[in-house]
Amino acid sequence: MSNGRVIIKFGGESGQGINTLGKILSKSVKESGFFNFAYREYPSLIRGGVASYQIDIAKEEIGSSSRYCDILLILHKVAVHEYLPSVSQNGIVIHDKDELILTQEEKEYITKNNITLVSLDTIKMALEVKGIEIMANMVLLGFIWKLLNLDTKPLEEIVRKTFEHKDVDMEAEIRCIMAGYNSKQIKEEIVKPLTFKPQKQWKDSLSITGNEAIALGAISAGCRAFYAYPMTPATSILKFLGDTYKETGILVKQAENEITAAQLVMGSMNIGTRAMTATSGGGFDLMAETVSCAGISETPMVIVMAQRTGAGTGVPTWTGAGDISLAVHGGHGEFSRCVISISNPQDAYILIQKAFNISEIYQMPVILLTEKQIAESIFNTKNLPKAIKIERGISKGKNRYEITDNGISPRWIPSKDNPTYLQNSDEHKPSGESTENSKEIIEMSDKRLRKLETLKQELPEPEYFGSKNPDTVFIGYGSVGNTIRDILKENPNIGYLHYQYIYPLKYEKIIEIHEEGA
Questions:
Q1: 3-class secondary structure, 238
Q2: Domain 208-381, what fold?
Q3: Are 515 and 507 in contact (CB under 8 A)?
Q4: What are the residue boundaries of the structural domains of the chain, listed by start?
Q5: Can 5-204 and 208-381 be said to share one CATH topology?
Q6: Phi and psi dihedrals of 153, rounded to 5?
Q7: CA–CA distance from 84 to each of 90, 102, 191, 357 (Å)?
Q8: pLDDT value, residue 3
Q9: Cβ neighbours of residue 55 under 8 Å, at least 6 residues apart?
Q10: Which of 377, 317, 338, 352 is nearest to 456 (CA)?
Q11: Does domain 5-204 bear CATH number 3.40.640.10?
């Protein structure tokens, strides 16, 4: 246990139920009144490869994972080589009855750090209480629960909810939990009870991922259509909206590729239906031509870009934050856009709503940046913020692309207010008719770019956290903000400037901080 946290990690192969185990444990800890942050890592494989699920239980709100864990559960012996170095001093490694094959270096690490190895024959324990082999994971859950010295009622309730719609012997599942909980191999010296008290605010809190919050925020924003091609780590938005479409009434379509998804969004927004798509960096590359088309035709468009690691296919199932330049500059030619970044579910819920408002008021593409670390992690949040007012920027006018001082032209729904509505992705006159006249081209290009300055004036300043007289100031966005804000609790001499609105960038605060420190 370190820094007011108890950290538990599952390690094994994909397909061994690690994700289910992690979710059950995370939700059960919350129901017991403790805050926790849960993060999973998995290979880009259906089955096989090493995967993990880490749960940080904390005495106060956190938004990041620890480097080391106190309890490591090995579901497959190959995982010990990957995750043993992450076990902290005086930690515990729980593994199956098969003896771990350790290198000399690993044996020395265990001895040096006073790590306790616990061998459990979970299958035998499950069978002894008339369970079946697949219920061995429930034995592990019960064993962990006893190590934390927690009451089993919340754990039992979450297990029942998790499997209530599945064809399982629920009572056998519970018996397996109790078999692990009452195991004779639990010794006083390895029990790691939580030293902080449960709080009702965390028991009553909401367990939610970043992607789920984005989806809920989109519904609150009046989004009526979602088009996407599956791409990790954005896919769970597609799944969530698909699973809930009967309750929300949203149209959900899986397109044949990202190009089609982007064009469906543009078409829907053009006729007045709020729509969005979600993808990752490689998918956004394919959408870039449509983004450029939306830029010159001044069509609203909302895209969620969930970042992952690497160029090309990269490392599809690992977090990353390297696509900021793609979001700001992707698409040929010069045109206005807005890029927004989220850090947590509260951000996600509100900022996707603001993305829709900005997109329609300023008639431009808006890209909402997230990362796997945010998209798929489970956060405990007290409440989602109140939904903001929907502002669409719809107005009557004669010329669709009228030259204005602030760059914003009239926009109305085709066929509604005016008999004529001419829209064009070629360069055009205020009327919408194509032009190759240099004077008209410059005027129209300047008009579109003026929207950036207009928008910039309306955007909030970046938020500052930490010391008023810091030794060091960090500047960042996205999940980095969660980590640094956790660090601030123990390092009072640093500061952090956090950006939600990446483009257009309000950089004046950076200059001010630099001049104060010079």
A1: helix
A2: Rossmann fold (3.40.50)
A3: no
A4: 5-204, 208-381, 394-458, 463-517
A5: no
A6: -55, -50
A7: 13, 10, 19, 48
A8: 64
A9: 7, 8, 9, 22, 25, 26, 29, 36, 37, 38
A10: 338
A11: no
